[in-house]
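Study this one:
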Amino acid sequence: MTLTSFGPANLIKRSPETHPLTWRLRDDAEPVWFDEYQAKNGYAAARKAFADMAQDDIVQTVKDAGLKGRGGAGFPTGVKWGLMPKDESINIRYLLCNADEMEPNTWKDRMLMEQLPHLLIEGMLISARALKTYRGYIFLRGEYTTAAKHLNRAVEEAKAAGLLGKNILGSGFDFELFVHTGAGRYICGEETALINSLEGRRANPRSKPPFPAAVGVWGKPTCVNNVETLCNVPAIIADGVDWYKSLAREGSEDMGTKLMGFSGKVKNPGLWELPFGVTARELFEDYAGGMRDGYTLKAWQPGGAGTGFLLPEHLDAQMYAGGIGKVGTRMGTGLAMAVDNTVNMVSLLRNMEQFFARESCGFCTPCRDGLPWSVKLLMALENGEGREGDIETLLGLVGFLGPGKTFCAHAPGAVEPLGSAIKYFRSEFEAGIAPTSAAVPPLAKPIVVGA
């Protein structure tokens, strides 16, 4: 798989009018450095934001455009920006880019940082201006060594051009930007765990409230946004709200475009910038080319390992949060994975739950103890040593670890694929029960908070 696989030439004709994130990409996949980026209208949006727009107008424009977070949660970006304090006396504020892309089967942010580092820097510069933040950090997944090298070079180029540092564009506004590489923890995708890690603390999620907009990095107001989210900002500022909204397909409640992809045994695994509202079938058949010869599609996940499994008959769902929600799961990161007919679902889930159990921060009991318990049961079923009641116990764990039962969203995301796999492929789990096994008592029904 390559990070530059953008589909059949007759389907992909990237232009500024239709592909705001990817039209500047080079065909040879080399990074777009400062001179080339500027020649391709780079930093024009930043100059417009500094010269012609009040800071609050930038926030309102992003809010009106309907930009939502592209990291998986989908929270409205303008609304999050609006939570930052209005008090001008608070002169220490931080902008934090979440580049800790640890979600399995997801590599969209990596492509942007490796090939278009200045797009992210421009997005952060405009965002910093809007939020009155004087310092920014790109919290980068430690394994992304190429991205780190390219981002650091791009930061130095922007400094040399007077676009970072003191008195940017003669505005009197100062903004410093630093690339910070993490030590490698999935939980750092949660914004408060990321903040703790940046401060040199254990990467545990914090209790909320207070939210980062009030108490974030070193106790100061902080806004945390995903890489792809920030990369959308320049185009919105340059070309306006109405144009940005027009990019999405009819029926989509999400605006703009999205980096989407397909991995697995498909003919053309890759990554494409597509309008929200495109159907999963178009993504799978027209762009990914369908399954390789000799394989059939058994199931698919729409957006990373933490999203539920769907069946081939769900491919007509539109790729936006509400469209995928209608068929019973979440869009997540928008990079789908195809599961072929040779894959045993019990083995696949055991592998997934091992990952999630290992990546738990251990702060709360359901996640710390429940995920390893699910791994133990799945290993028994995988080896044909399961007992009567094991499947019911797994379903009980899905309930105990569901939304609202744990300190953060790690455990609910971990068990969502497990619950959906049992729902659609229960017979494969039943096949792992030993013929002479003794029954075990099922888990009690989970207590519903607030019931």
Observations:
- The first strand starts at residue 94 and ends at 99.
- Residues 34-245 form a domain with the Rossmann fold fold (CATH 3.40.50.11540).
- Residues 207 and 420 are 29 Å apart (CA to CA).
